[in-house]
Amino acid sequence: MPLNLPSRLPAVEILKSENIFVMDSQQASTQDIRPLRIVILNLMPLKITTETDLIRLLSNTPLQIEVDFLKISGHISKNTPVEHMMTFYKDFSTLRNENYDGMIITGAPVEQMPFEEVDYWKEVSEIFDWARTHVTSTLYICWAAQAGLYHFYGVPKYPLPQKMFGIFKHKVYDHQNPIFRGFDDEFYVPHSRHTEVRKSDIEKVPELTLLSESEESGVYMVMARGGREFFITGHSEYSPYTLDTEYRRDLDKGLPIEMPLNYYRNNDPKEGPLVRWRGHANLLFSNWLNYFVYQQTPYDIREIK
């Protein structure tokens, strides 16, 4: 797809090397169409990696997309160069009067803290509320999914006895929902988290619809407001070696970590990962963009309410 990105964003060259078509802002300006405007609130520590993972999936439709990156004001990223943040990221204060067709809010390495103790909880809550009146559809991922469910619907999170870590099989509850168009009856998703939300709490809230779960990893996808909000507990956007990198990082630090389940060929890290979530991930993002963003957003983006 023609993905309109800043020409010097590192993800551009990475994705071109993978034979994925991206378009920088200079080339996109020659096309006489209104691109979909997507804003990404990137709360992950390795921001360049997360940017690349998300853009890889956003590139899988024929729609032209213009991407803005949003950061938390005053929060210094320790794992991303300051120059990168200053060049490619904007503060909420500069975007709050804008409207977007879609928004993605990532996970964050704060899931074991109570929500209110996260130093940017006040601002992220304000961004959640803003999205309801300025964005057609918002995709909440991992910690953001837990945070959104808690902020809007009072759904609590619970600590797990050990990290949910690996690739898990999921089932679809509503095959008629367009978000699942093209899905198989079962599909796989990476998970990497220390906490969970529970089905029993989701079912107490009439505004929430549980769309998918796993016998092993629990609740996966919850929908609200007719698809204007999706809460996804897994990491469908992960590249093949993300879990491997996390596993080896924790081993090197001497942290208690089990080998990711259902991930390595023959359960042997030396044989590398068996990738079986990529097809589902591409369908998930293309279905979201097509059926819940592109087909729902008004032509005049200022009419989003």
From TrEMBL:
<keyword id="KW-0028">Amino-acid biosynthesis</keyword>
<feature type="active site">
    <location>
        <position position="237"/>
    </location>
</feature>
<keyword id="KW-0486">Methionine biosynthesis</keyword>
<feature type="site" description="Important for acyl-CoA specificity">
    <location>
        <position position="111"/>
    </location>
</feature>
<dbReference type="Pfam" id="PF04204">
    <property type="entry name" value="HTS"/>
</dbReference>
<dbReference type="InterPro" id="IPR029062">
    <property type="entry name" value="Class_I_gatase-like"/>
</dbReference>
<protein>
    <recommendedName>
        <fullName>Homoserine O-acetyltransferase</fullName>
        <ecNumber>2.3.1.31</ecNumber>
    </recommendedName>
</protein>
<comment type="similarity">
    <text>Belongs to the MetA family.</text>
</comment>
<keyword id="KW-0808">Transferase</keyword>
<dbReference type="GO" id="GO:0008899">
    <property type="term" value="F:homoserine O-succinyltransferase activity"/>
</dbReference>
<dbReference type="InterPro" id="IPR033752">
    <property type="entry name" value="MetA_family"/>
</dbReference>
<dbReference type="InterPro" id="IPR005697">
    <property type="entry name" value="HST_MetA"/>
</dbReference>
<feature type="active site" description="Acyl-thioester intermediate">
    <location>
        <position position="142"/>
    </location>
</feature>
<keyword id="KW-0012">Acyltransferase</keyword>
<feature type="site" description="Important for substrate specificity">
    <location>
        <position position="192"/>
    </location>
</feature>
<dbReference type="GO" id="GO:0019281">
    <property type="term" value="P:L-methionine biosynthetic process from homoserine via O-succinyl-L-homoserine and cystathionine"/>
</dbReference>
<feature type="binding site">
    <location>
        <position position="192"/>
    </location>
    <ligand>
        <name>substrate</name>
    </ligand>
</feature>
<dbReference type="GO" id="GO:0005737">
    <property type="term" value="C:cytoplasm"/>
</dbReference>
<feature type="binding site">
    <location>
        <position position="163"/>
    </location>
    <ligand>
        <name>substrate</name>
    </ligand>
</feature>
<keyword id="KW-0963">Cytoplasm</keyword>
<feature type="active site" description="Proton acceptor">
    <location>
        <position position="235"/>
    </location>
</feature>
<dbReference type="GO" id="GO:0004414">
    <property type="term" value="F:homoserine O-acetyltransferase activity"/>
</dbReference>
<comment type="function">
    <text>Transfers an acetyl group from acetyl-CoA to L-homoserine, forming acetyl-L-homoserine.</text>
</comment>
<feature type="binding site">
    <location>
        <position position="249"/>
    </location>
    <ligand>
        <name>substrate</name>
    </ligand>
</feature>
<comment type="pathway">
    <text>Amino-acid biosynthesis; L-methionine biosynthesis via de novo pathway; O-acetyl-L-homoserine from L-homoserine: step 1/1.</text>
</comment>
